[in-house]
Structures are given as structure tokens and as C-alpha cells.
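agent> step 3/5: call structure_predict on target 'Putative group 1 glycosyltransferase' (Leptospirillum ferriphilum).
agent> reason: downstream docking stage needs a structural representation; sequence fetched in step 2, passing through unchanged.
tool.input:
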Amino acid sequence: MKVFVDATPIAINRTAVYHIAWDIIDYFSQKYDASVLIYDRICSSDEIEKVRMDCNTDLIRRAQKGVSDFLHSDWNRMKNNVRSDLGIERHCVIYLDPLYCLFDRSIDDSVVLVHDLTPLTYPSWHEPMVCESYKRAYEKIQESHASLVAVSHSTARDLWVNLGISRHQIRVAHLYHRKMKAHLTADSDDFTNREKKFLFVGSLEERKNIKGLIMAFHLSGLQESGFSLVIVGGDGYGSEEIRRLVAKIKGVKLAGFIDDRDLEKLYRTSWAFIYPSMWEGFGLPLLEAMARGLPCIASSHSAVKEVGADAALFIQSSDVGSISKALIQSSKWEPKERENYMLRSLERSKAFSFEKFISIIEDAVIEISARKSGEFFDVEHESQLPPSFLTFPWIEQFPKSFGDMPESHSEAYLILILQLARIRMERRFVELSKKDLDAKERSSVEREFSSIEFAIEARIRELKRLKNYKEGVID
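tool.output (status=ok):
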């Protein structure tokens, strides 16, 4: 079984998760020799590097046109026809967005990264064509055996509540912030050299509640005391209304889409970060702001509260007065109070890391490999075991060393071990069949492996119960 990463999202937009998509591509390409899909083709390593350097290549333009044509075409005619000739159906595809599941006939042996369900739950925030396409994508996911990875517990709950997908089928992998050039400390100049400006980062779209933020800033009157509101992000659904409102309000600046260097400077020089979004699957700009020691004002619901925890000053996003009050309150912070918010932001950001995120996606891939044991394992050689699986020395002596197995193993690894035990039992029976064994000797071999199976399955059940307890799920 081979691993593919569907990188089509990098051709469509440059949202906050663009760099995370590249991290996933790099990790699985280097560790598992994964191939990269962009729309309807498997890309060479040279093509991928060109795309990394220039997001306006012929390959990207072709993918953009292809995706647009697909989404606007008659569904029955285009259904499952994009990648039917690539021969990837019996392999594992990592989808970075549920929408692109529509390109393939079967997604049973795939991993789907789910950000949010707002095209289904709040269709007025999106174009009708986008909502219809995601509706079809989630219907396909419901009917499949795909492994789902939600970027927050909030999104996992939405999958359960709105689609009836069991929490047992959903892993949660929180996103993470990119590494900075230098870590901040309380003695850093960045803690004191701040300008009188509030910063918002995100697409110009209705669900981000930018119009509510602009009205709250106007209501606060802080522009009269030298404060400004800087809004960074490209156009999204509803951007025209936002632009018209900005033109009427003093002290508000639309910076548009800016490069990483300029964004880093804004993060490090702003007075506070404001994130009044109506709903988020995660809220990566909030995490990036916290990682840069920026005091944060954020919505008190969805995944935003999950990410901000006790580090942010929370508001009611639907209440312009609540947002305005928080802006005024933050403008009056004394140095020590503001420093306290900065330190809390930095501390909270440490809870999120690439290592935690990627390990959960990797576990999902390994579990699929175990599920497809007939293809993934060679009974004679076991040559295709995951590299990370083979790093544990006790594997060489398995099953004799089963008692030395680390307690911390994930469910996916235990499933792999269970498959390995069954394969080795079968091989041993083949070997013993060549000898004259009486019933007692054969029964002894069967009991040995049955006890191993029982122990592994018990450990798997224990892990599931522990996971459900932590997430508050009742079996």
C-alpha cells in the first residue's frame, strides 16, 4: 500500500493552513516516500518544488481551472471521474480538505482532515455552489470507512451532532503554529515596543464577523485617542460589504494579503489581537498571535474558546457592545496587566506542536495499513512494516517479548501488533504442519497465541475507554 497526499488545496488558496499543508507533504514524502496529488495528476518532485517556489505555475493554473470546472459542472456527469485512471483507489490518500474526496471513486482507505462544517451548518456564510459541493463530500464521507481527523474537539462534536459520525471514528489533531526566529521573554523589547493598533488576521468574509468588529471599533471611539484597527487577509465571501464599510469608518485599514515578513512585524508591534469570529474549526491566526506574545481578545465559543483557554479575554461575538467594551478595556491596560496577558498567551501556545499534530495523522495512516493487512504485510517477509514501527527493539523477539511492550502505545500500533501476531501464528502453523504434531502440542501453540491476542485486544479496549473518559463520551 502506498501513501498519497492530496495537495490540491495549496493550488486553490493561501489561507492560514497553507504552510501546514506543506508540512504534511514534506513529512510523508520524506518518511514514507508518499506521492503528491494536485487535482488530476501525480506530481513529480521537480514539479512540487516549482510549486513551492512559485504558486502561479502552469500546474497550479491548470488545477485551479480544473477544480472550478468540476464544481460548476453537472454532478452526475462529473461524478468520480477526475482521477479514475491514476490507479490510487487501493492506496491511502491523505485529504487535506473534505471537498477533494469528490475526485475519487472510493475513499475507504483514506484519511480526511476536517476543519469545519460551516458550509452545512451556516450556509449563508458561503457561496451556494460551495455549500452544495461540501454537502456531497460529507455525504460521501458518511457512506465510507474513511478515517477522520478533526482539527479540534469542537469540529469533532459537529461531525457527531450533524452527521451522526461516532466519536470513535474521529481523531482530534490540533493545529500548531510555525516556528519563530527567536523566542520571546518578559525582558524582550517586543514586550514594550507596541504601537496603538489592534490587529485582525483572516479572510474578508462574513463568518469572521469583521463588520461587527469595525462597528465595535467605531463605537469605542478609540480612533480619537490614536488607536487604529488593521485588518489583514484576502477577499472571501462577502468582502465587498466589508470594503464599503471600511471606507466609511475612521481609523480602519485594510492591509490585504501580505507576505510572512510583514505579517510577523504586525504580530510583534500591535497592541492586541482581536478575533471576534462567529465560528471557527480551529482559529490558527489566534494561535499564531499567542505564540508571538500578543494579548488576545477572542470569541467565547466554537474552537476559539478551545484554543484560547485561559489566555484570552473573551467576548460575545454577536454583541457589538461586548466587543467594543473589550477594546476599551484592553486600551487601558497597565504595563503589568498587559504583560500578564502576554505571558499567558506564550504559555498557552506551547500546548500545540507539529509533533503532536502529525503523530495523530500518522497513527491514522498506520491503522489503515493494519486494516489492509492482507496487502500491507507479506507473510513471508513482513517487509512493508512502517519504519517507526520497526524502531522498537522488542519487535525482533515478538511475541516472546510482548510483556516488555511500552504501555504508551497507541491504538493504531496495537492493531498492527495484533495483525503481526496472527501472521506469525499462521506461519508457525505452516512450519509445524511439516512435523508430526499431536493434538496436545498443537493446542499448546494455539493457547500461546490466543493469550497474546486476548492481551492486545484488552489493551485496545482499555485505550478506547480512557479516550472516551477524557472526551466525555459515553459508550
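agent> step 4/5: record observation. The longest strand covers residues 197-201.
agent> proceeding.
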